[in-house]
Amino acid sequence: MAGQFASVEECLEKNVPEQELKEVKRILYGKELPTITIPESAEKLAVQHSFDIQGYAIPAAKEELTPPRIVRVGVIQNAIVKETTAPIAEQRAALHARISQMTEAAALCGVNIICFQEAWTMPFAFCTREKQPWCEFAENPDNGPTTQLCQELARKFNMVIVSPILERDEIHGDTLWNTAVVISNTGYVLGKSRKNHIPRVGDFNESTYYMEGDTGHTVFQTQFGRIAINICYGRHHPQNWMMYGVNGAEIVFNPSATVGGLSEPMWGIEARNAAIANSYFTCAINRVGTESFPNEFTSADGKPAHKDFGHFYGSSYVAAPDGSRTPGLSRIRDGLLVTEMDLNLCRQVKDRWGFRMTQRLDLYASSLAAAIQPDYQPPVIKDVC
Predict the structure, then answer these.
(1) Is 118 a catalytic residue?
(2) In 35-154, which ranges are E strands?
(3) If you compute the radius of gyration of the chain from its CA atoms, what whole number of angstroms results?
(4) How do beta strands 288-290 and 335-342 pair?
(5) 286 in helix, strand or coil?
(6) 382 annotated active-site
(7) Contact, 46 vs 53, CB < 8 A?
(8) 166: number of CA atoms within 13 Å, CB side?
(9) Which of 109, 115, 150, 232 is catalytic?
(10) Any idea what DSSP says for residue 361?
(11) Does residue 307 sit in helix, strand or coil?
(12) What is the model's pTM?
């Protein structure tokens, strides 16, 4: 059933009376966002290559002294193209072609910044704990084939590209990292952001391949705004989201790969909460499909061995600092979500709610500094009775 249910939105459209649907959407999404027109050329491309396109606008109030800061952001979710038993070069080439098609559609929609899903050039093989052949997908983030492709697309479409890959760090002993490479709209590699938090839960055995990142909470100043990347499991850690806001991010991307039986109840909450708490836009991206592998593996939970670890449920969405969010993409189909946002909304929400002004970082800094000491005693007052 998990891999057949298309989306909450489709279910609502089919079953909620029209006069009530608008109020349901207001409650679910904060407000009903206006749609943006998808060009016919992009629609044709989507039909030709079998993926969905949705587009929404998240406006800000007009100001007298500050002009709007409009940026169009695209996020892509997709299934792998080739079977996991196909040669590595063929698997990667097929995904390169697929994402190039979808990026072209994003360009036709006027997208300025686009982000792909976590480890987009490969199946999410980390569940297997096998080193071969999956480590062969790892690439140099500065001049590997995927970065070279993204540089070409960035220059061609005048688009900032966030490309999450499995990184091969050739300078430091050929170690591996889960990394997002950020490429300027000029084709210049701005830098990279490595995954800060690594899961060790169920089939997500990623520390077999790479460990916690060492790039901190880098923010990238692009022509279209200040962006950051909180990769997958980092969305479960509020402090991780917080630090990107402290460092000035206006848009934080969360490229992910997560399955229904594990995290779906959290999915619509975490990125939206982060947008509210930190007064920036968040873009939650998840892959789709079920990926099967040649050899069985176990989850260390007493259940039988298996060759897949469930359905990646897509449902990518964008959330705004005012608590609103877009509807999600499909749970079962590839998709491109285009969101036009006014970055002035970040500052307007800070002024209105004062979350950043009342954040009390000094209080938490001193409390956390004390809490990590080996002789720490929590300030718990006990009843003597």
Answers:
(1) yes
(2) 52-58, 70-77, 113-115
(3) 21
(4) unpaired
(5) strand
(6) no
(7) yes
(8) 22
(9) 232
(10) H
(11) coil
(12) 0.97
Asked if 162 contacts 111 with a C-beta cutoff of 8 angstroms, the reply is no
Query: At 326, is the secondary structure helix, strand, or coil?
Result: coil
Mean pLDDT per 10-residue segment, the chain (385 residues): 83 92 91 95 98 98 97 98 98 98 98 98 96 97 98 98 98 97 98 96 91 97 98 97 98 96 93 98 98 92 90 97 97 98 98 95 96 96 90
Amino acid in position 57:
A
With beta carbons less than 8 A apart as the criterion, state whether 76 and 99 touch: yes
Fold held by 52-59+67-357? Nitrilase/N-carbamoyl-D-aminoacid amidohydrolase (3.60.110)
Residues in the chain: 385
Contacts of 377 (CB under 8 A, 6+ apart): none
Residue owning tokens 């779906």: 264
User: Residue 312 and residue 2: Cα distance in Å, rounded?
Assistant: 9
Let me know the angle formed at the C-alpha of 377 by 371 and 380, rounded to the nearest 5 degrees: 105
109 annotated active-site: no
Domain coordinates in residue numbering, the chain: 52-59+67-357
Q: For residue 311, which amino acid is it? A: H
Half-sphere exposure of 265 (CA within 13 A, CB side): 2
pLDDT at position 331: 97
User: What is the side-by-side strand order in the sheet with 317-319?
Assistant: 220-222, 225-229, 251-256, 281-286, 317-319
Residue identified by tokens 């196909």 is 86
Measured between alpha carbons, how far is 325 from 342 in angstroms, rounded to an integer?
A: 14
Annotated catalytic residue within 195, 206, 270, 340? 195
Burial class (CB in 10 A: 0-12, 13-18, 19+), 46: buried
Determine which helix (DSSP H) or strand (DSSP E) holds 242, and give its type and residue range: helix 238-246
SS3 212: coil
Closest CA to 241 of 266, 283, 277: 277
Among 118, 206, 250, 340, the one annotated catalytic: 118
Selection from 70, 10, 58, 11 nearest residue 30 by Cα = 58
